[in-house]
Amino acid sequence: MPPHEGLVHLEEYDWRDSNVALINSDIDHKVKHQSASTEPAWNNGIIGCETGLFIWRIESFEVVPWPQEQYGAFHEGDSYIILKSERVKKAAGEQSGNEDKLVHDIFFWLGSHTSQDEAGTAAYKTVELDEFLHGTAIQHRELQSAPSDAFSALFPRLKILRGGVRSGFTHVDTNEEQTHTDTLLRIFKHPSAGAGRDSILVHEVEPTWQSLDEDDVFVLDKGDKIFVWQGKNCAPMEKLKAAQVVNDMTIAKHVEVEVLSQAESRSRVVVDYLGGGGINPLQTRFKSPRPVSSATAREVKKLFRLSDSEGQLSFSLAKEGNRIEMNDLDGSDVFLLDSGRTVWVWEGRGASRAEKAMWLKVVQRYVAQQGDAAGVSFVKVSQGSEGRAFVAALQA
After folding, report:
1. In the predicted structure, residue 32 carries a pLDDT above the cut 90
2. What is the pTM of this model?
């Protein structure tokens, strides 16, 4: 099926026959801004005023600040909102005044086992935070299974852990006594989106020998001792990342660390601890699916237009190929750019209320139709606040 078939003249998106006529109207923005102005998470005198990285976790429909010492650690059962604010130089022709301006990227990160309520709250609060920031932020939807370059770049020590707020996870000070549970971390490389480099990811996995893979490195924390198990085909960068992870784990506690290569007969100690008694690691092939998707990067970019200029909302292919440029965009409509591993939504200043209201549903349907795009991240930008990454996606 062509990517735009079934998305042209979407009757169910006809705003005249629905209750969404006020979406993106002046009154709609006022209502949302009023809601945002009463959200404690945003109203601390810092958000929207200062540069920095800020993270919140969704807990029972509330936006709760995430402890700074936990930055970079996310739980697969949760949803988070991440705000990155930085100052950049103003482009030629922008309003005079200070030589730089504050720009914002908002990420709502959805763990693979987060609840629908948590995911929905994260998405809603992301829109609210954007409204608080006067609609200038770039919005990113991030899936645990497909981390984007932009998200990975925020966290040199990105770690995905099991559990979440619904499972009773709470932050525990390192000085407090607690019952130890063996944990197993898998360290592996995951191809980044069109960057020609590899991201090294850290995922907590089931502490069993079936989780081992000869292509990766594993860290087993037994409380009184930490083992590093290096698969026979692991990469040097995975070994370096494992050393970094172990260093972070041992800063607060002094325990013995032993590094074992799968090619060593003693590596069976780790297999034994993980319930694989009697299994010889020298004679066994260890294979386990990685906890990330491998979305296929389409080689040809596609640009779609979302428009109601003919009286009914339609979604159509506007251009295809690798020569898509900024002047292919029309400020009176909304456009969807499938650049490979990322789907971008560009919102023109003059787009109608219906076009602005329906972009999320349209992109969700588009992604659902593309079997190889189900794991990609998608990003929404507004005309005039696109950022360098969008321009690079056009020019790539």
Report:
1. no
2. 0.78
Based on the fold, state whether residues 46 and 103 are members of the same structural domain: yes
Owning domain of residue 233: 180-273
Task: Say which DSSP state 76 is in.
Answer: T
* Interstrand relation of 73-75 and 159-161 (parallel, antiparallel or unpaired): parallel
pLDDT digits 0-9 by tens, 112-149:
899 988 988 888 899 889 889 988 899 998 888 878 87
* pLDDT recorded at residue 92: 57
Query: Is 4 inside a domain boundary?
Result: no
User: How many structural domains are present in the chain?
Assistant: 2
Residues 48 and 147 reside in one and the same domain: yes
Same domain membership, residue 118 and residue 19: yes
Asked if the structure places residue 133 within a domain, the reply is yes
- Cα–Cα distance for residue pair 136/104, rounded to 1 Å: 7
The rounded distance, in Å, linking the Cα atoms of 149 and 192 is 6
As to burial, measured by CB atoms within 10 angstroms (0-12 exposed, 13-18 middle, 19+ buried), residue 140 is: buried
95-102: long-range pairs with CB below 8 Å, 24+: 102/48, 102/49, 102/51
- In-domain check, residue 193: yes
> How does strand 225-230 pair with strand 217-221?
antiparallel
Which of 244, 273, 302 represents a domain boundary (last residue)?
273
In a domain, residue 227? The reply is: yes
pLDDT (mean) for 170-186:
65
In the numeric block, which tokens belong to residue 74? 């996310």
Q: What is the DSSP string of 262-329?
A: TTSGGGHHHHHHTT-TT--TTT-------SS------SS-EEEEEE-TTSS-EEEEEEESS---GGG-
